[in-house]
Amino acid sequence: MPIIVNLDVMMAKRKISLNELSERVDLTLSNLSILKTGKAKAIRFSTLEAICKALDCQPADILEYINDK
Asked: Residue ranges of the HTH cro/C1-type domain (predicted)?
């Protein structure tokens, strides 16, 4: 899939654990883990907004498009 999820990179930069982020964005560990591993098929804008707010970052810091022609 050409969309790469860099959530783990941002979490490492901000030194925040999956448990802590889960509490801050009110998302289950399971759902957050699915997103972190890139297995998610979709993300709600409200969830993306909460993650960006918790990590003090922009959506482009978390999601990356790779054009693999």
From this structure: 7-62
